[in-house]
Amino acid sequence: MEALAHITTPEFAVAFVVSFVAAAVQSTVGFGFALLSVPLLSLLNPLFAPVPQLIVVFPLTLAIVLRERHAVEFRSTLWIFAGRIPGALVGVALLKLLSTAALDVLMSLMVITGVAIVVSRGTFRRTSAREFFAGVASGTMAMVSAIGGPPIALLYRNDAGPTVRANLGLVFAIGLCITISVRAGAGEVSWEEVVIGAALLPAVGLGLRASRYLIPRVEGPRLRNIIVVVAGASAVMLLARGVLNW
């Protein structure tokens, strides 16, 4: 446990607060945990991310799905998962062809295009084809940048809050299960990271509880606007990172 000795009390306090806020956002909007927590905590202390954040967000996504289980649409999520498989393959190909900076720019442009499409079409409807291609985009982004939520969130932008949270939660829960299993099998999950994740679980639980009071305040048009803003923020972050590292 030598690595834990390198985390100071102030650092843990900051990580606790960041995890709480990120959990509250994800529990309310349906996504955004990794977008908010991983970049900040990586800068604070690399020990906090990404594995500890993967560990704590997994039970959070399961709790969200259970809470909103009446709104799960299995047919929709099956199309998304069908798209994530070729999307992951595209991501692998891009990793071999492009630099990290170029990938960040490309992924940001994908999200910006998605934002432009859903914003310009007030009657944007989900179809099987759009669910599939959102899965492709999500799988590609998850593979190259670890941020796969925006394409799926934009797909559900015009749906009711429970539908957004339930279906994004189901997609994320299964995806996280695969990611954590693969990392563990490859020896990329240490006991130190598991302990750090466990220590941050109370913050995530508090964030989930706080969402009970936040959800009634953001349902309807306000939720749709927040989805676009958070997705747009992820695009700006990736674009800035890509340009700075070019």
What features would you describe in this structure?
This protein has ten helices and no strands. The chain has helices at 9-29, 33-44, 51-67, 74-97, 100-120, 128-145, 149-155, 161-185, 191-218, 221-244. The termini are far apart. With 246 residues, it is mainly alpha-helical. The mean pLDDT is 87. The protein has one domain. The radius of gyration is 17 Å and the shape is globular.
Helix content: over 70%
Name the beta content range.
Answer: under 5%
Overall pLDDT: 87
Q: Quick one: biggest sheet?
A: none
Give a short overview.
It is built from 10 helices and no strands.
Layout of SSEs?
Elements: H1 9-29, H2 33-44, H3 51-67, H4 74-97, H5 100-120, H6 128-145, H7 149-155, H8 161-185, H9 191-218, H10 221-244
Label this structure with key terms.
single chain; 246 residues; mainly alpha; 10 helices
